Structure formats: C-alpha cells, structure tokens
Amino acid sequence: MYLKLKKALYGTLQSAMHFWKTLNAKLISMGFMVNPYDKCIANKVIRRRKCTILWQLDDIKVSDVDSQVVSGVLGELRKIIRKRGTTNCESWQKHNYLGMVLDYPTRDAVQITMYDYIKNMLVQLPPVMDGESRTPATLHLFEVN
C-alpha cells in the first residue's frame, strides 16, 4: 500500500528534519545564532545575558537567568509548535530532559542525575546476565522478518 501524507509523520527521519528546519528558521528569525559545531544549540544575547536553546528531536530546553526571557522565547516558539501538536512546558527548578533530571538548587549551581532512568533500565534487564557476546548489539538485530 502507498499513500501520500499531507504533513510529516511523527517518528520518521523526514519529520525530524522538517521540525529541525522549521525550528532553525524560527530561531534565526528571532535573532538567535545557531552554534556552528552543534546545529541543535542556539544562543542570543537578551538583556545583556546569553539565552541558550538546545534541542534533541522535539525536546526543547530554553535556559536564561531571567524567567521572563524564557517565557517570552517559549511564547514565540509555541506559535510554530502549536500548529504541529501539543506542548508540555516545565518552568520550575527541576527539569526532566532526555532521561536526566536537571536540578537548579541555587542560581549558580546545577545537579544532574539519572536515578529514575537507571532504575527503569535495571528493571528491564534480564535477571541473569551471564555469558559472552561478540557484539554489544542485541541478538535479533540482524534477523529479517
């Protein structure tokens, strides 16, 4: 069966590239400079301080010492994101991002932990892990269905 989609299908490489291009264009139009070494990081000086945006696929993190700057940037980004789906924003001292917990206990410190991620990983591991493997890949990686 073949079909033609009216918009990008979530989870495909094309949708990730489409999102990156859309987000990248929006950030540049907002005056952000994309990092030449990591194309998923952008910076802009706002109120004489650096605002940083980083993203992994469709997970976005906006960092600035001024919460009003973060709210303003998120307001602009919501204009393009709302057209494409739902948003979930966190603006507290603790953030969950890509399996990490970023905790900002004070203005000049951050603690990064992955306790929940590790606990979930350990729960999913088989109870017995003895033996040898020629490769770190799973055994069914090269099986064709």
Provide structural commentary.
The chain has 145 residues and is α+β, with helices and mostly antiparallel strands. The protein folds into two domains: 84 residues; 40 residues, no CATH class. It is built from three helices and seven strands, in the order H-E-E-E-E-H-E-E-E-H. It has a four-stranded antiparallel sheet with strand order 1-2-3-4, with helices on one face. Strands 5-6-7 form a three-stranded antiparallel sheet. The protein is flat and about 60 Å long.
The percentage of residues in β strands lies in 15-25%
The assigned structural class equals alpha+beta
The gyration radius over C-alpha positions equals 20 Å
Order of helices and strands: HEEEEHEEEH
- The total domain count is 2
DSSP, total strands: 7
> Which residues form runs of ≥5 with pLDDT under 50?
none
What is the count of DSSP helices, taking H or I runs of 4+ residues? 3
- The end-to-end span amounts to 18 Å
The average pLDDT is 81
Helix content range of the residues, please? 25-40%
Secondary structure layout:
Layout: H1 13-29, E1 33-34, E2 41-46, E3 49-56, E4 59-63, H2 67-81, E5 94-97, E6 100-103, E7 111-113, H3 115-124
Antiparallel strand pairs: 1-2, 2-3, 3-4, 5-6, 6-7
Defining traits:
2 domains, 29% helix, three-stranded antiparallel β-sheet, alpha+beta, single chain, 145 residues
Describe what is shown at a glance.
29% of the residues lie in helices and 22% in strands. It has 145 residues and is an alpha+beta fold. The chain has a 4-stranded antiparallel beta sheet, with helices on one face. A 3-stranded antiparallel beta sheet has the order 5-6-7.
